[in-house]
Amino acid sequence: MANDVQTYDPLRNVITCGSLTISGYGPDSFIKITRSSPIFTTQVGAGGDVARSRSQDKTATIEITIMQTSPSNDQLSALAKADEIDGSGIFPFMMKDLNSTTVCSAQSAWVESWPDMERAKETGVCVWKLAAAKMNVFIGGGIT
Asked: What percentage of the chain carries pLDDT values higher than 70?
């Protein structure tokens, strides 16, 4: 009998930066990956002729939102600090959704900027901004 209910579990999303597995995801959206350029751009001539150009730009930005209390802040800070000091903060990146066939990965990624430093009455989140040189993206459907 076919299952007509799909189940999503946010903890079945695995995010790795080198040997570091990110933990302590934020309460709302905790990862956003955006390719810098569209796959194709379109040019339309005066007569209506259409041509498209394939972009070879596979760079991407990655935003990872984790709780202010997450130990991953220490680890991402160490990667960023190492990169500032001697350029050794480049690492492979992967995001795998074990609820589906979605996988995003890059051999070379780095911390692009530190999170804004903010404190309030209650615990908050840190939004880490990473960059990737050649992001491979596959957005898949759900697995039951």
From this structure: 97
Q: How far apart are CA 39 and CA 86, in angstroms?
A: 34
| Domains defined for the chain, CATH in brackets | 10-138 (2.30.110)
The answer for residues whose C-beta is within 8 angstroms of residue 88's C-beta and 6 or more apart is 82
**Would the pTM of this model clear 0.85, i.e. be above it?**
yes
The CA distance from 26 to 128, in Å, is 11
54-70 pLDDT, tens digit per residue, is: 999 999 999 999 999 99
Q: How far apart are the first and last CA of the chain?
A: 13
